[in-house]
Design brief:
This protein is mainly alpha-helical. It is built from 9 helices and 6 strands, in the order H-E-H-H-E-E-H-H-E-H-H-E-E-H-H.
């Protein structure tokens, strides 16, 4: 039986995110009427659909109309609605900058190349999200670069990273940190990317990219 937009809204709220490869999610991406119905159902709950064409999942987040009711505790505006302390939230921004920004650069570069091929052969070629373009960060490198700034190596390893893993923001495999289903969706790329690229984190990303390139050239 075909799933209704109400049922899909319930699934998204219950699971928090679903892969773009999901059959019903694929319908959302191509059926405008179904998407509008889903967005209306989510909005009735104070939520909105988080969808980025370069991300491998879709998720739900707070609708702008509901932000004050959730984020304003009467004394201050909360920095997040999932209970992350400030140092762990800062770590999330760092991981987003180190993992998602370089991935997006690779995705855009590949899409440009495919579009050039499409023009050459007279066909339209569109890049799909690809996990192979997302690369991990060694935990020891993260701890060495940011341990002192974000509460200490022990706190990051024993508390912050496990918390981010449980929330679906990262995955930890063999001492390497990879993006989780939500990392590419928790920040607005158009708003965050310029701030990071033009700030101090942008310098660090460029330094790491240059070091990685030099390492590959000499290996």
């Amino acid at each position: 039986m075909q799933q209704t937009s109400e049922q899909l809204a319930a699934r998204l709220i219950a699971h928090r995110y679903l892969p773009r490869s999901d059959e019903v999610i694929r319908r959302v991406l191509f059926d405008l009427d179904f998407r509008v119905s889903l967005e209306n159902n989510l909005k009735a709950c104070g939520l909105r659909l988080l969808d980025n064409p370069y991300a491998s999942h879709v998720a739900v987040g707070l609708h702008q109309d509901a932000e004050r009711a959730v984020m304003d505790d009467g004394q201050q505006w909360l920095s997040n609605n999932i209970g992350l302390p400030k140092d762990t939230l800062a770590l999330t921004v760092v991981l987003w900058a180190l993992i998602i920004l370089p991935k997006r650069e690779r995705q855009l570069g590949r899409e440009a190349a495919l579009e050039s091929q499409g023009e050459l052969f007279g066909t339209l070629v569109k890049a799909e999200p690809s996990e192979e373009l997302s690369r991990g960060i060694p935990e020891n490198v993260l701890l060495e670069d940011f341990g002192k700034l974000l509460g200490g190596k022990g706190r990051i390893s024993n508390f912050a990273l496990p918390q981010l893993s449980r929330l679906g923001l990262i995955e930890r495999r063999n001492k390497i940190i990879y993006e989780g289903p939500l990392l590419d969706l928790v920040f607005d790329y158009a708003e965050m990317a310029p701030r990071i690229i033009q700030g101090a984190l942008g310098d660090l990303i460029r330094e790491q990219s240059q070091s990685a390139g030099a390492g590959q050239a000499t290996s």
